[in-house]
Amino acid sequence: MPLAEPAPTRAPVPPLAARARTVGGSPVRDILAVTARPEVINFAGGLPAPELFDRDGIAAAFHDALAETPSQALQYSTTEGEPVLRTTLASRITAQGLPTASDDILITTGSQQALSLLATALLEPGDTVLVENPCYLAALQVFGLAGARVVAVPGDEDGADPQALAELVRRESPKLLYLVPTFQNPTGRTMPAQRREAVAAVAARHGLWIIEDDPYGELRYDGERVPWIAAHPGAEDRAVLLGSFSKVMAPGLRLGWLRAPAELRRACALVKQAADLHTPTLNQLAAARYLDVLDTHVERVRAVYGERRDAMLAGLPDALPEGSVWTRPEGGMFLWARLPEPYDTTALLPQVVKQNVAYVPGAPFYADEPDPSTLRLCFVTQTPEEIAEGLRRLGKGLGL
Fold this sequence. Notes:
By secondary structure, the protein is an alpha/beta fold. The chain has helices at residues 18-22, 27-34, 55-68, 70-73, 83-95, 110-122, 137-145, 162-172, 193-206, 262-276, 281-290, 294-319, 345-353, 384-397, and strands at 41-42, 105-108, 128-131, 149-152, 155-156, 159-160, 176-179, 209-213, 239-244, 256-259, 325-326, 334-338, 357-358, 360-361, 374-378. 41% of the residues lie in helices and 13% in strands. The strands form four sheets. Strands 2-10-9-8-7-3-4 form a seven-stranded mixed beta sheet, sandwiched between helices. A four-stranded antiparallel beta sheet has the order 11-12-15-14.
């Protein structure tokens, strides 16, 4: 009787890269997955209001791009981006106070890709990155994947403190500083012009890249526009400005851009070639056409979002425990609240979700020791009536 063949051995596959094993997912996206039920009033996301998308205007822009330049619209494009979109964007940025040529701009697949390209082009594992405290969550993910050491800059209601920044730069020798100075995510705060000038001076004096992320700047409901850090003296050769069409046109288009000094911009273009060759051509050509009517659309969006911000601010005193404090943003999509001790917003979230309402706990937004009593609320996705009902549910979930 023949002997049985021995079972073939199966060696384990090689492990994932360390960066893929150690960087966690997005708590915001985890919460959105749990609270996707239609009966949930969701203050957790950073989602533009879908009923305000200009479906007809965007459809017309796509139709025109396909009708007028079909061979171009359906073909590969250059990595840097379609010239017509870069030229139109450059004119728009110049009109807002920062002289810009089309060659200064790289079109990206959302501004999130711009941040990823910069991290790849600038950071070696172990490099130090300075961030605000709290900080945009997805930026912390990008820097974590790059193997960077992330250090938070102390600040206040006006953002990162320039004196504390200078001390950290001297002590830590960081490669870059990442900021969302206008209607910051998650707090909604805006850095004043004088402080922006001081930040630019610190970067010029100590040799520091500044990444200035501005996805919300056009969503201003009151107050005066504050010039970009990139427009201040001393920042010309070291400030990178990021922008996005996600909040003012539609996030599904996945269109963003970066404006950077020539050497860094070329490095980012090389990284982008390896990542995706180029941003979708048709989307770029349609966006270039839509820019002709974008300002009119943004005016409509501002009016609606401003009412929704006011509705949330009006309802918060009855929805949060006595002793709570919160920001009063002049624009953007978010406000930030701090509850009195011993409230822990992460621990409280499950019982709040039982009331069919959701927020984002503040802890994941911190690069260092988190404040467990904080939370982020998005006010743009729901109507004023839905906001009022959501805040009533929130108060009930918090035990009020």
